[in-house]
Fold:
Amino acid sequence: LLWDIKSCWDSIYFMINHLHVLNYFFLSPSQCDIADFKLRAIEWLILQDMELVLKISHLAHEAISSKSTPMLGAVVPTFERLITQWKHLAKFIPH
Structure:
């Protein structure tokens, strides 16, 4: 199981990403006794929206931390790109 770690920006993104595997587990006929715990369609839609938003920050975090010492010249454009992508995404996911 994955934990939400305050010092790891990507932990929630990874947890949501791993939920897709759990969905297949709940769909298994052998798991009918716990099928009531699976997420409803609207909950999956909300998680997919959250995953899209968090994926952008995940990619920015990977770009910044790919080097042992991030330089300001690389960090500022990465954050500008992050904000631009979030604004673009907001047009497609207005809620």
